[in-house]
Amino acid sequence: MSSKLEIQWTPITNKFITWGSEICLYEVHQDRDNVLQNIKLSSTTSANLLATNTNHHYVKCLDVYPKSDADLLLAVGLSNGRISLSTFGPTEYDALGLTGKELVPRHARQCNAVCWNTIETSWVAAGLDKYRADNSVLIWDIMKSSQNNESNSGRMAVNTMAPGVELAKPIAEFGVSETAHSMAWFSSNSKVIAVGMNLKNIKFVDIRDPNKITNSTLTKAVFGVCMDPNDDRHLASFFENNIYVWDTRNFEKPILTLHQNKPVIKIAWCPTKYNLLGSLQKESSVINLYDIQHTVIGNEEVEPSVLERDVVPGSPHNIMSFSWHNSDENRFLTIALSGTITDYTVFDRITLNWAPTSNVVWTYGRKTMKYINDCPLQDISTKIRQRALSGYGLKAEIYKNGEVVDNEMLANVWNWLFLSGKLVEDGVLTGTQCKHPGVQAVLKLDPSNNKSDHYSLLWSDLGNKNCQGVVRIFKHEDRDKALHLCSWHFERDSNQLTAFLEQLEKEGAHTRAAAIAVFSLKIRLAIEILSRAPETLAFGLGLNVVAMALAGFTDDKNSVWKQFCSTAKQKLSDPYLKVIFSFLTAENYNFESVLNESGVTVDDRVAFACMFLPDNRLHDYLKKLSDKLIEEGNLDGLLLTGTNQDGIKLLQRYLDATGDIQSTALIAVRAFPVEQFSEVIKVWISSYRNLLDTWQLWNERAHFDIMLSTYCPADKPPQQVYVSCNYCGKTISAYMYGLTRGRGPFTRIGGTANKLKMSSCPGCRKPLPRCAICLMHMGTTTGNFSNEVDSNKIIEFSNWFTWCQTCRHGGHVSHMTHWFDEHSECPVTACTCKCFSVDSLSNAIIK
Amino acid sequence: MFEAQEINAEHKDLIHDVAYDFYGQRMATCSSDQYVKVWDQNSDGKWTLTSSWKAHSGSVWKVTWAHPEFGQVLATCSFDRTAAVWEEIVGETPGPGERGTRHWVRRTNLVDSRTSVTDVKFGPRTQGLQLATCSAEGIIRIYEAPDVLNLSQWTLQFEIQCKLPCSCLSWNPSLSKMHPLMLAVGSDDPNPANGVKVFIYVYSESCRKWTKMDAITNITDPVYDLSFSPNLGRSFHVLAIATKDVKIVNLPHVYDNPNSQNVITKLDAQIVAQFDDHESTVWRVCWNVTGTILASSGDDGCVRMFKMNYINSWKPIAVLRGDGSQVSNEGQRSSVSSTVGPQIQSASQTARYIKLGAISQPRDVPWH
User: Fold this and answer.
1) How far, in Å, CA of B98 to CA of A586, rounded?
2) Helical H runs in A587-678?
3) What is the rounded average pLDDT of the residues A77-102?
4) Domain containing B252: what range?
5) Most buried one in A99, A105, A762, A783, CB count within 10 A?
């Protein structure tokens, strides 16, 4: 490294210095727009240069006086071994005579480290290269040394460097003929310093007795010795590719070795967080962070756990140095070879989770969590919940379910299910077992022996004077059924058609009405519809123009009209207008552009196909279309598939695409035959029920269950609890069941009054257990009859017998509820069971 | 749009995990300070600390709730090489009309691991009380409480050697009887040369053993978290993986065929989306209740959300900074979504027809 470039925060929270060939002081501030000449540090902060100090040319190391409040005092270690005290401009230190003062060793050699004591703040330590018979670590007191200087001038040694300069005397020195590479004061003990020496050991020296080494270890890792500012026990140092973490109490071996891919050039403990060590490798753009957690199992401290993180502070170049901010959490500065400075804050790892409701929680920093109630994202989960609350899928009239949802496709499905169900009920669609047959099921066209009849109509007969051609229409009773399913069941009756079109016009669907009129071969009607369209519509005037164009209809292949329309229709945006002209300009009955116009609803296209396509092409078209709709999971495809296996495939695809388990389960239950309830549908049902339970929508779940049971009445839930006699072991519940049903051996007793009187085992006549409160036998009434007629129902329930599942003590419901209003323990004396708290939900209710 | 509330977590060190209970009304947190805390939501939606205890003698990595049908039960795992099962009990009633204080007791301490236990998760509730742990030594352990009323007795059912240090695991939450149990395990081993970092194991009821599936072969970066999405009847499983980016993988259903002698060992997994929006390491992924939105957190200090628009088509939809403020220019950043399915037709193109059709024949269709 020829050029050195370092960066360091100062004790003043918004100032930092950089030093290489010169020392620069910067001030950091939040971004302000009006300030130019800024150096951008991050997206929110920038810095400006306050001062530059160019007095020193061979800066080897530097430390900032830790008690710098307003002005900064720097101790600069120079290549000639001197420590020079420097400031930026005039400061309070000038008066103390500190500015410009030099602390000079006896012999000139490079200064490797300089380090202020953070407790005895006037002490500064210098670590020097080896010099024969001279100490390499010198500790100075900047406040005292000048006085000592005078009193001890007699002992002044000869200064080989600058004989004229007075020599201050260090307050302590040690390390004769040794090299000091790096050093660090203990953070809680001001008298002890750790020094990495001679490429072979780290020594702890108490400066009160500098010749005695308090502790040392043999290691090559003598560089970057640094003490955890929060805990004196932990010391880190590095050598080449390895970082070592030491426990100062047990200094023999490192407690941790962190291997790096490239040589390490700097390490530093984070001052704001326990046990976080940052490190930088040579020629790298990454700061490696190690969160070192110490664990004690029993009395033994095991190897610490390390969470490693790599942080890229955004600068792509070689980072030369970095510096932690003293007080801002996890914030550091980096400086790259190019001089680019980056201000970076490491985010603590965020953990997050999603509640079953739409609440999200995550951690922010170490001390706070953030949460959002009802995350405002439009998602199927919130929709399902809203729809469940509005009774979606449970309405008796099937079409009403469509009114609950704000989704047209779903509304259509429900309406279609209603329509098809109605058609089957009314006997329009015969010959299918299915409740909701699809078009494909209805069309049993057999090209060989059950052909559709086809009629050719002359356009001119239909009132179009300038036409010579014919139009082909196919008819068959199956096709009629299919048209019914598509709700085009007005073919034979022109009044119905007119009524339908009027309805469409009322709803503003003028182009659709026109298209249907054209497909019914009533072009004049279509023209009228289009010209009636109010001009207030977005394309009101345009529709009149279209009507004019339509009026010129001719099927002469070479007519100007046809040529013009063929090209002009591409410019139409309305799909229905487009298909009108596609149909009228089609040649050789090729209606591909009508059939594949995705803007036209599926049923209109299918109905169109049923009218104008010959058998084999109709078949192919429906097959292709249904395959496509199934693939897309488009529920409009139910029109084609009906409720058969293909329909299940379609629903599955819809579920895969949308995650809408609710509609899937509901449609499956309500439309598909019970016999077909495959495993798949059962999974849908149980998934949906589970979802409702998670949301605590138990009422909605119960309504769903009720609806479900009307569709499969055979599925009675099995009896859940059996009560048997303590003495003979025979079941009691079977008798009780018989009692209520009016069957079994007790039928002859009869009457509601007697029902309550079964207080002994019907098998052995031994008494049944007693209620823990009233000490009456099970089966007797509670005794607090109310005179109010309204409360009769409650009385019935309060006569029931209940018990704790854990201790099996119990009694009448009314007594138990009363007891547990005030207690959580079992009412039976000497039973310590906390019956009430066993139930988690009751806890929640109490809360 | 988003209004983030704040809770003072009162942990002394980094919080590693936060877990909701089945209903989302209770929350448990765990931290490097070795404590576990339980929070309850009151009717106003505010969270209050109800329990806090020193659970382990090392960093507590994960905390997870059992289904409420087993009681109020938590499991934790820690660097101290153990996993623990906790149950909330109510103390003695101080007097009539007063409730005893609730506190958590350790029901069991699972000490089989010789290294840090990095994740713990309860199995699907249809399987009774099962607990899976994974550890830094690369062993997955599956425990079972044979008696669900006795939480102090757990038997070690299976030990699966996974060879690489494990960092996270996830059960397939499918409740369907058709789907055999499935576990996904991730490794944070940093060396790409050590191969795949995501392992899928499937339990065969007939052979009574767990089989490693050959499924995801191209993720060799360290994996920090993974999570199966709630299945809810879908015809495939979805697994989200937090590694150097967010990955979403579709896995086909596996059917356990008791008659077949050949055990299936290959799954045709498909990475359907990957997002490098965090531009850094991704720590966590989690799903909403329907598995339609994925939330992730990463080194950029942001929470990001991704939504499924259509089969296999995922889009970033929201970015929140750690402090809860929303990043405005969301969606500007590019994302790599591999396969984009055909867009479903917009609602305006689907029909209004049937309703009209029904009305057009009022005589035929009696409206009640």
Assistant:
1) 85
2) 592-595, 602-612, 615-632, 638-641, 645-658, 661-671
3) 77
4) 15-359
5) A105
Nearest CA in chain A to B58: A295
Determine whether the interchain pair A603/B354 forms a contact, defined as Cβ–Cβ distance below 8 Å.
yes
Task: Say if the Cβ atoms of A369 and B6 lie within 8 Å.
Answer: yes
Where would I find the H helices in B224-332? none
**Are A350 and B301 inside 8 Å of each other by CB?**
yes
Contact criterion met (CB below 8 Å) for B295 and A375? no
User: Residue A247: CB partners within 8 Å, gap ≥ 6?
Assistant: A233, A234, A235, A255
Contacts of A625 (CB under 8 A, 6+ apart): A595, A602, A605, A606, A637, A640
In a domain, B368, yes or no: no
Chain A, window 239-278: residues with a beta carbon less than 8 angstroms from a chain B beta carbon = 274
B133-192 residues touching A, CB cutoff 8 A: 149, 175-178, 190
Chain centroid to Cα A333, Å, comes to: 31
Question: Do A639 and A431 touch, CB atoms closer than 8 A?
Answer: no
Give span(s): CATH 2.130.10.10, chain A. Answer: 219-345
Q: In the prediction, which pLDDT does A141 show?
A: 80
CB contact under 8 A, A347 and B357: no
Task: Answer whether residue B366 is part of any domain.
Answer: no
Q: Cβ contacts (< 8 Å) between B148 and chain A: which residues? A: none
Report the SS3 class of residue A565: helix
Instruction: Pick from A366, A400, A631, A839 the residue to mutate for testing the B interface (most B CBs within 10 Å).
Output: A366
Residue B347 lies in a domain: yes
* A533 CB-near residues (< 8 Å, 6+ apart): A505, A510, A540, A543, A544
- Contact by Cβ (8 Å): A322, A278: yes
Using one digit for the tens of pLDDT, what is the confidence trace for A429-473? 766 667 788 888 888 766 566 677 777 777 777 777 777 777 888
Say if residues A25 and A17 touch (Cβ distance below 8 Å): yes
> What residue of A is the nearest CA neighbor of B296?
A352
Q: How far is B5 from chain A (nearest CA, A)?
A: 5
**Nearest neighbour of A348 by CB, restricted to B14, B22, B25:** B14
Give, for A578, the enclosing helix (H) or strand (E): helix A575-585
* CA-based nearest distance A622→chain B, Å: 17
Neighbours of A153 (CB within 10 A): 11
**Chain B partners within 8 Å of A276 (Cβ):** none
Q: What is the full DSSP assignment across B236-249?
A: EEEEEEESSSEEEE
CATH assignment of the domain containing B196: 2.130.10.10
Nearest alpha-carbon partner for A138 in A115, A122, A118: A115
Contacts of A802 (CB under 8 A, 6+ apart): A810, A811, A812, A813, A816
Among the CATH numbers 3.10.20.30, 2.130.10.10, 1.10.1040.10, 2.60.120.260, which is that of A219-345? 2.130.10.10
What is the interface pTM, i.e. ipTM, of the complex?
0.87
* Cβ-Cβ contacts under 8 Å, B347 against chain A: 407-409
CB contact under 8 A, A363 and B9: yes
- Nearest CB among A500, A659, A824 relative to B360 is that of A500
> What distances in angstroms separate CA B162 from CA B198, B199, B249, B266, one per listed residue?
10, 8, 21, 17
Give the number of residues written for chain A: 847
Residue B8 lies in a domain: no
B158 or A123, which is more confident? B158
Asked if residues A438 and A639 have their Cβ atoms less than 8 Å apart, the reply is yes
Tens digit of each residue's pLDDT (9 = 90 or more) over A599-631 = 888 888 888 888 888 888 888 888 899 999 998
**Number of separate domains in chain B:** 1
Q: Give the tokens for residue A451.
A: 């052909």
